[in-house]
Amino acid sequence: MPTIDTRGLIIDVARRLFSQQGIENTTIGDVAIASNKSRRTIYTYFKSKEELLEASIESEMKKISAAMKKVALEKISPDKKLVKLIFVRLRITRSIVRRNSGLHSEYFGNMWIVEHIRRVFNVHEIALFRSIIADGQQQGIFNVESPDLTARFLHFCLNGLEIPFIKGVINKHKDEEFVRNFSERIILSALGARPSQQ
What's the CA gap between 33 and 92, in Å, rounded? Predict the structure, then answer.
């Protein structure tokens, strides 16, 4: 008999309500009713609405991390993996932001929560880039002085691309094609990449 993830259910319901009604207009009572749980059950898992909001943002960040880890495990060469990773990262981020479009301005009002959660995500993303770049360096595909500094630089470049990519304003709404070309030509060139045959 399958077990029900009560905490996960509460987070999903809260995220949906936050997006539909706004953070300020959503109460713990609303979440309890919509999830068919008592307020007491909600408070068993979350001390406050702010904690529930933090958990909902964290669950969205975990979706991005999971998609990136899936790409990182693929049996493809480091250069192809890096391009795919960048593309998947931007597409999943855009999908999540669009799905939660009603929260956009309120998230910025709660930027300290987003930044707190992003710190953990950033560490994992940089580590993932570092690993792929180091692997490419070892295979003779990349030629960089420091995989760590290169991974950090790539991470910050992607952060800068996020909002323009989400808004579709990078290259007259041909952003997916542009990002793929950008990744293949500019980023791989900067890494001194010699295209692999895989």
Answer: 30
91: tokens are: 């597409």
pLDDT at 20 over 70: yes
pLDDT digits (tens, 9 = 90+) for 138-189: 999 999 989 999 999 999 988 888 877 777 776 665 666 776 777 777 777 7
b/e map 38-57, b = 16+ CB within 10 Å: eeeebeebbeebeebbbbbb
Which has the higher per-residue pLDDT, 120 or 44? 44
The answer to whether the CB of 68 falls within 8 A of the CB of 96 is: no
Residue with tokens 């706004």: 22
Q: What number of other Cβ atoms are within 10 A of residue 118's Cβ?
A: 16
**Cα 86 to Cα 132: distance, rounded to the nearest angstrom:** 12
CA distance 98 to 33: 25
Q: Are 102 and 20 in contact (CB under 8 A)?
A: yes
